[in-house]
Amino acid sequence: MKFFSYFILSFFLIFPANSDQIYELIKIPNLKLYKIENNGLKYLNPSKPFVAGVGINNVSCSSAKKQNINKQNEQIIKNFNIYKGDFLQKINLKYIVLCKNLKVSEISALGFANPEMKTLIFNINTDEKLLDRVLHHEVFHFIQHGNEDLFNIVNWEKLNDSNFKYQDCSTCTEKLGLNYSNNNNGFLTDYSMSTPYEDMAEVYSFMITNKNLLIKRSKEDAVIEKKIGFIKKYISKLENSIE
């Protein structure tokens, strides 16, 4: 009985369920605990719509019905469960917020990574065909944020053809498509061409979700082959189990 009491106490010490306490941790209002996974990730969903942050990091999202979250929950958790707890701590990812109609700076978004708050916000409206890739794409932003010396954008840019230039920001272009394309040498999607950060994240997301496609593509695209090698080299310095 004592053990059970200690367990209950430790649960609340580790993760306060009160929405005000959650707000103090990640600065997003109206959140409630949905689930805690074995790797330490804590899944949250808002009880009502929220707006958080200011300026370019202004984020808004609507509450999602539990049955809608349940529908995609298994797929979402399966994707995140490839990551071990110590790796998630290393990249500063602790909270997953599941909501719908996500917007960042009033622009519709599928996901939003906020390493400072250890939080990934995911739009459950995401097309099922893109869901896996979007999740790992956002995880890479956590990886890169804490390891900019490894995933250096200057070194990354040198992998491209010399005449290519990225945009100043990910929304500074109309090329926002996430569907795979082999029409552009060195790039897997139109969105890859926006910024080096998004390009790295797109390559990583394909490495995790569609290795066979990348193997085939790398045989005919030398730039993609170099980019895969770059990501593999530096990911291995952080976690050997991710290939």
Describe this structure in words.
With 243 residues, the chain is α+β, with helices and mostly antiparallel strands. The chain folds into two domains: 117 residues, no CATH class; 97 residues, no CATH class. Helices cover 42% and strands 16% of the residues. It has nine helices and eight strands. Strands 1, 2, 3, 4, 5, 6, 7 and 8 form an eight-stranded mixed sheet that branches. The radius of gyration is 19 Å and the shape is globular. The N and C termini lie far apart (44 Å). The N terminus is likely disordered.
Write the layout of secondary structure elements.
Layout (H helix, E strand, L loop, with lengths): L1 H13 L4 H8 L4 E6 L5 E5 L3 E3 L6 E4 L3 H15 L4 H7 L3 E10 L2 E2 L2 E4 L4 E5 L4 H18 L7 H5 L38 H14 L1 H8 L3 H14 L8
Parallel strand pairs: 2-5, 5-8
Antiparallel strand pairs: 1-2, 3-4, 4-5, 5-6, 7-8
Helix pairs in contact: 3-5, 5-7, 7-9, 8-9
